[in-house]
Amino acid sequence: MTFDEVLAQVLELLRREGRLSYRALKRRFSLDDEYLEDLKAEIIDAKRLAVDENGTVLVWTGDSSQAGSAQVAAASDRSAAAAGTPSLTLPHPFVASRSSGQVVKEWGREAQSDMSDDGERRQLTVMFCDLVGSTPLSEQFDPEELRKLIRAYQHACSEVIARFGGRIAKYLGDGLLAYFGYPRAHEDDAQRAVGAALGIVAAIRTLNAEHGKGVTLKVRLGIHTGLVVVGEMGGGEFREQAAIVGDTPNTADRLQDIAEPDTVVISGATYKLVRGLFECESLGPRALKGLSIPVQVHRVLRESEAQTRFDVAMRAGLTPLIGRENESAILVQRWAQARGGEGQVVLLTGEPGIGKSRLVQGFKERIAMEPSTWLECHCSPYHYNSAHYPVIDLLQRFLEFESNDDSLVKLSKLERGLRKYGLPVTDYLPLLASLLSLPVPEEYPGLMLTLEAQKEKTHLAIHAWLLAITEATGLVLLFEDLHWTDPSTLELLGALLDQVPTTRLLLVLTYRPEFEPPWSVRSHFVSVALSRLPRTHAEAVVYNVSGGKPLPPQVLDQIITKTDGVPLFVEELTKTVLESDLVRERNGRYELTGLLPPLAIPSTLQDSLTARLDRLGSVREVAQLAATIGRDFSYELLRAISPLDDLDLRGAMAALVDAEVLYRRGVVPQARYLFKHALIRDAAYESLLKSKRQQVHSRIASVLEQQFLKVVQAQPELIAHHYTEAGLIAQAVPYWQKAGE
């Protein structure tokens, strides 16, 4: 190698490691003392990119000047030109994670002027591959022959990685860094990475055989899966469009350091995603250089014959009601008792995605023709600290409040509602008007009560209203996602439970297993815990989602295996298959378009949602913006914060509805939208940079204050939430205080 090539590779190593001993440099690059002194003079004195420590170690300091950056980049470019390979520049923050905070600070000032802030957070599987024993090779071969051999090694790696759908981010001398999961996610990116790593080991052995005796190349590979930020780094002509930042590449790099020649080692995080797909040997927890916490390490031995499995727990979804006959029968039986005057409480629990919502919806449809009233309270994680939020929301819907109703109209609706059920208007209207943030008319007596006394009387008024409904028609009252409710609502609900046995009320409470109801068990309670669907029922879900058109048997088998009987998983994975190019419709059924590869459907729900969002194209950004508002949002608010004009935004929302990412209620511009699954919303939201989220939250709060005064009055906690997420605590505190009153 030329001096410039060696210089560029030393700089890259120094950036990546932060510290390098002179002994290691001499061994790695076969340097004599004079050559090493020339490198030190260039790096320390001329470029001022490092300092000497005790005459034994070179310590990276970086240089914020444009000249220093240009010199480093120029050295990298000259090396790349000489070797016929891409530039070896690594993103600075990846390097700085092993260096001082000053490096990050200085780099930030350098890049601030011409850097884009665009980027995204996403799960990525990262592979580091390093050629073992490159120094002895440099002694064994002429530089030109060595260059040819290294290029053959790089080409072999590139072919394998491309075959598995990976992306080579950069070549690092005799090593390389590859991504799996960007720019487009797959359901099995961890599996692809491990398969590619084994493929590289096999390809290098083939390469050795092709070059004959005297050539014995060996590689070692490390793989780790974790959160990264992907985006533009660098500046000017040295800008990188898809650099990654985070602990994930650091961990992958350290893993390859401890791998034996021609072996692949993976972290515990990656092992969890490929367990059963590959035969692995546990190496136990390992302390890796630069990492404060030991990492569980596994050596990959070979592929297994197992199929991909799906093993995550997700939120309740809207899958069709299939295979819940016993549970449905319990609900019907308890409703029959309630209609006869023996009120009942059903505690419905199950893991996320297991079908609690679908079971309740099926029951609702079953009794729809019976003379009864159905009311729903939806608890929300955004309103955990908002007193009585689910009840307030229920009353607003029950009284049919409209967004354009003024206070007088709402008070009139409240008064009519009370009179309809023969309730004392004079006593209850002031209490409920206060609860609904409405002004109490002068003709009604003022509320001269302590806050605690007012809350108690308000609870009594709500109880009286609900019980009046039960007397008139019978009532099914649903509290959904009780694990997210506020303490005041729990208190109201607890007092109601004692009155249930002598009423025509069926109270259905749904929650996740981690929620522990604060009430003791009563004789009129029944607990229903949902279990996973057997294979026959899961196949029926697939059949329903595909519109009654059968899928090829091998595709169906993989879907059932991956979903593990969770209805939400079955629905989402089936839709992903139907949206792919793997199958096409013909003669009332689906058929494969070619040989069946590992299905491009998710192995985890997170990967499924990321892959689905990636397929949305440009409207993905609209989904991210909407996700920052919340799971349920109005078109008016989205329009107020969106940079798109009305026509483009309508088109984007139509595309999201068509893709079944969103549901729409009403007609634009008065429409409201709901993310079909909360975790679709979560995936879109979590992919935003935290800084971007804060900007959007700040914009939402500002727009709500300026343009949605009724929301400010009725839901101060919403403005408080957005200001809090924006990091504007001072602006949030008054709204939190108002929400708690």
- Radius of gyration based on Cα positions: 31 Å
Enumerate how many helices there are, as a single number.
Answer: 30
Terminal residue distance: 74 Å
Biggest sheet: strands, sense, closure? 8 strands, mixed
Low-pLDDT stretches are: 63-116, 307-318, 598-604
Helix content range: 40-55%
Average residue-wise pLDDT: 81
User: What's the total number of strands?
Assistant: 21
- Overall geometric form: elongated
Strand residue percentage? 15-25%
Structural class comes to: alpha+beta
Structure in words:
It is a single chain. With 741 residues, this protein is an alpha+beta fold. 49% of the residues lie in helices and 18% in strands. The chain has 30 helices and 21 strands. Strands 4, 5, 6, 7, 8, 9, 10 and 11 form an eight-stranded mixed β-sheet that branches. A five-stranded parallel β-sheet has the order 13-14-15-12-16. Strand 10 and strand 11 form a beta hairpin. Helix 12 packs across helix 13 (356-366) and helix 19 packs across helix 20 (553-563). The N and C termini lie far apart (74 Å).
Quick recap:
This protein is an alpha+beta fold. Helix content is 49%, strand content 18%.
Task: Name a few traits of the molecule.
741 residues, 8-stranded mixed beta sheet, single chain, 18% strand
Strand and helix layout:
Blueprint: H1 3-17, E1 19-21, H2 22-29, H3 33-46, E2 50-53, E3 57-60, H4 66-83, H5 92-96, H6 101-111, E4 119-132, H7 134-140, H8 143-163, E5 167-172, E6 175-180, H9 189-211, E7 218-233, E8 240-245, H10 247-258, E9 263-267, H11 268-274, E10 278-286, E11 295-303, H12 325-339, E12 344-349, H13 356-366, E13 373-378, H14 389-398, H15 407-420, H16 425-435, H17 451-473, E14 475-480, H18 487-497, E15 505-511, E16 525-529, H19 535-545, H20 553-563, H21 567-579, E17 583-586, E18 589-592, H22 605-614, H23 620-629, E19 632-634, H24 635-641, H25 646-658, E20 662-665, E21 672-675, H26 678-686, H27 690-707, H28 709-714, H29 716-725, H30 729-740
Parallel strand pairs: 7-9, 12-15, 12-16, 13-14, 14-15
Antiparallel strand pairs: 1-3, 2-3, 4-6, 4-7, 5-6, 7-8, 9-11, 10-11, 17-18, 19-21, 20-21
Helix pairs in contact: 1-4, 8-9, 12-13, 15-16, 16-17, 19-20, 19-21, 20-21, 22-26, 23-26, 27-29, 29-30
